[in-house]
Design a protein that fits this description.
The chain is an alpha/beta fold and 317 residues long. 60% of the residues lie in helices and 9% in strands. A hairpin with a 2-residue loop joins strand 1 (81-84) and strand 2 (87-90). The radius of gyration is 29 Å and the shape is elongated. One of its GO terms (biological process) is glucocorticoid metabolic process.
Length: 317
């Protein structure tokens, strides 16, 4: 029999041509790459086509081969080929994403904080978290999974000396609340973890804080530096670093909250992980500003020295 006129040859050939075009389209319009697993699937397709061609009626063989090709295309969907840490990886599923970015370059007055500090905090704490969340959302939506994000009370209350960090965490809190509303129809649960004061490894990196302090002093306009004074600026940072020495080293409340947010059938919208954290929120939300301001002042504004310009004004009164 002339193979060029064989109905089965044309039928199976048409399936392969159509399949090849779809594969080419996916490769050229996505981050899809050839992985060892995909190569194995392609090889199995060839074996399966040979079996169908020899032992099955044309119509049944075409239906089964087409279904097998569609299955391979589905598992090679571009949404499963995701860029992670500069590389494209093959991910078959994702139940939960835990965001835990917490970059803080400087403790000090908002006026003294460099614009690079504001941008740095926003880039890591907000934009970085937002980008990874958007990248992985297709997988989370398909599994009706969870998004768990570690925020900060500084993003919900105006803590002195934490303008850059607090602003980035506030923006993060707002966008996660938006995701929570928008992803409800998809069955995705979004939770925020609001931790108390915990001592992390970054706190003990004295060289880092010294370099950040020197960078700040070198970058401030001379007029502003003279009005505040180097003594006041240095004391502010020292007070915060000393405050960090009293922070808890037991992270179990945070870990327990994250675990519950991932595994619970009905996770909370917000978890408050830390001793006496409820008191901070109660004072900050429900009590008059005259009381809450004094409360936060007692925690943060413990400077013994005053800004140089204010000290001069006081001496002339």
């Amino acid at each position: 029999m002339d193979l060029s006129t064989s109905p089965s040859l044309w039928a199976y050939g048409s399936v392969w041509v159509f399949f090849s075009l779809l594969v080419f389209f996916k490769f050229s319009h996505s981050d899809m790459i050839l992985t060892p697993a995909l190569l194995v699937y392609f090889f199995l397709l060839v074996i399966f086509e040979w079996f169908c061609h020899l032992y099955l009626p044309i119509i049944l063989g075409i239906v089964l081969l087409s279904s097998a090709c569609w299955y391979v295309l589905n598992i090679a969907s571009p949404r499963r080929m995701l860029p992670v840490a500069g590389k494209t990886v093959f991910i078959t599923g994702l139940w939960a994403l835990v965001n835990n970015a917490g970059y803080c370059a400087h403790f000090g007055d908002a006026e003294l904080s460099l614009m690079s500090t504001y941008r740095g905090c926003m880039e890591v704490n907000f934009f970085g978290t937002l980008e990874i969340t958007k990248t992985l959302l297709p997988l989370i939506r398909s599994s009706k999974g969870r998004i768990v994000t570690v925020g900060s009370p500084a993003g919900e209350h105006s803590f002195p000396f934490l303008a850059a960090y607090g602003s980035s965490k506030a923006a993060l809190s707002r966008v996660m609340d938006t995701f929570r509303h928008e992803l409800m129809p998809w069955g995705v649960k979004v939770s925020m973890i609001q931790p108390g004061s915990y001592r992390t490894g970054a706190h003990d990196n004295k060289i880092h804080w010294e370099n950040q302090h020197k960078k700040l002093l070198a970058s401030l306009p001379n007029e502003l530096l003279q009005e505040y004074g180097e003594e006041y600026i240095s004391e502010t940072q020292s007070l915060f670093l000393n405050y960090g020495n009293t922070a808890s080293t037991d992270f179990s409340p945070v870990l327990d909250s994250i675990t519950d947010a991932i595994l619970s059938e009905n996770p909370k919208v917000k978890y408050y992980a830390g001793k006496q954290l409820w008191l901070l929120y109660f004072i900050g939300i429900y009590l008059p500003h005259s009381i809450s301001d004094n409360f936060f002042k007692g925690i943060f504004l413990k400077n013994k020295s005053m800004p140089r310009a204010l000290k001069k004004q006081k001496n002339h009164e």
